[in-house]
Amino acid sequence: MTLPDVQHLRALVVIASPTDLNRFGMAQLDLSAEEQRLMTALAPIQATLLVRGTDHPPTMAKLLEELRAGYELLIIVAHGSFEQHGTPILWLEKADATSDPVAGPDLKHALEGAARRPQLAILAACEGAGRDHDGREALAALGPLLVAGGVPAVVAMQGQVSIAAVQALLPTLIAELRREPQIDLALAAARRAAQREHADWWRPTLTMRVADGRVWNGTAPLRPPRAGDPPFTAGPTVPPDQLRGRREQIQAIKYRIGSIVPQCISIVGYRLSGKSSLLNYIQQRISEFCTHEQQPLVIPINLKVTHFQTPAGITEGLRRGIEQQTGTAPWRREENDDPWAVDDGLQHLRDRGRRLIVLIDEFEAIEDRLPAFAGWGGDWREKASQGYFALVIASLHPIDAIYQDLGLTSPFGNIFTTIELGALSSGEWQALVRDGFGAEHVSSADIELIDDLAGGLPYYTQLAAQLLWSHNDHARTRAEFTREVASHFSHLWKKLRTDEQHALRHTAGIPGLAAPPPGVRSKLQRHGLLRADGRLFSSVLREWVRDL
């Protein structure tokens, strides 16, 4: 048998979801979502799509007709089931889009009589079929029949496989097959890629009749690897020179902490929205916010650090920070509980012309302890009102709302102006990407991929760009991104309020949910979780939410 060359691979993709599936107790597939996922995973393999609503419907006749044109890869996304006597069934469509249950033996005989057969077939029912356990087992049972019909290798999703697991596995499988066309090795690599985040990573099964596992010849020409470390920072804090956008927020902060009398400001944004990076920018670029004559003294306090999670700990953090930067302790450590000594020390700094600015990050880290901080909040409000310092506090939710959720009244009163962090504008995040790649060419397809994955949110933009730089391959970038963000999405989800979770589930297309209130949608849009057109910021988040 002469194997096809990897550089000339063609794929036939069949997505079948008959309009009358509900009669048989099966759910409709999300055709557009399946199409987008598969076409992205296959790029740049040339693919032909059989799907309802086009000139190429997913019928048995059209499938066999297309196979005569010669395709190396066949992917079928459809429901499966068993007949009464245990025969596996594949649910394709008739010309009128109603059900055409094709028996496994009939499909085997049709393939046996075909002049040309694919080298590899992939069978999956990953969208909307989570309740159809028997159907998934039926797809797995079709594997040996297709191999008996002349297909060298078949990968079938066995059991109940999550959407996210398939989305993580398929791009890696295709990418590995283009590099090293041994299906057993490629599937092992794809399983490893899905293993970290998905408990059902093992469920794809392989049936093959090729001893060495090779389904085609050669390796695909790859875009050359880039030299050096990726010029992007996918972490909680980016260096000041990589901070893009936020000019409006920076200006608002400047007006508050750099005014004649220091004033306080609250920075609100969901996790990984850039709050810590903005605080770091203030600290590193304080000359942009305060004049030289104001002699700014910036003290950062991160409340995730355990020893700052008591009022005494915060006071000690302030004292030590001042001592480290000025060389002189404003009061002795044993005087932390003496309000007069602390006031005298802060007043002395103020009278010397020092502008004290306290940056408090991760305020929500102490929200479970806020009742114990009531006295501290009132005390620091009074100190801020006397001009001893300007407070810049970063939190997931507005300060007042955090206290209200606990049935408390904020001791800070109205001393804060609040700014919100959302997505960057298209021009801002694209400038970040293009500046990072420098002389390297960034194609429109690269930009579209990063937009689809990250939606302009800073951390996710940095991550997508970093992965694209490292892999230089769209399928691998998407697969790695999907795997990397799962834990972040989980943490984000836990911190959302019930009405916000409901809004995201509704937007992801989960049926039976009432439309969220306009105010909730507006908030999610301001914070970047929803785009201006109402979609979720990332297609990966959409699939993650649907898979909950």
TrEMBL record:
The CHAT domain is annotated at: 10-200
Q: Region (Disordered) spans which residues?
A: 222-242
Q: Which top-level group of life is the source organism from?
A: Bacteria
Which InterPro entries does the record cross-reference, listed alphabetically?
CHAT_dom, P-loop_NTPase
Pfam families reported for this sequence? CHAT
The transmembrane segments are none
User: What is this protein called in UniProt?
Assistant: CHAT domain-containing protein
